[in-house]
Amino acid sequence: MKTIERAVVLLSGGLDSSTLLHFVVKKLGAREVHALSFLYGQKHRRELEAAAWQAKAAGVTAHDLVDMEFFGALMPGASALTDAAVAVPRLADLDSKELSQPPTYVPNRNMMLLSVAAAYAEARGIPDLFYGAQTQDSYGYWDCTPVFVERVNAVLALNHRPPVKVHAPFVWMRKAEEIKLGLELGVDYAHTWTCYRGDAVPCGDCPSCVERAAAFKEVGIVDPLMAT
Question: How deeply is 186 buried, as exposed, middle or buried, from its count of CB atoms within 10 A (0-12, 13-18, 19+)?
Answer without folding.
Answer: exposed
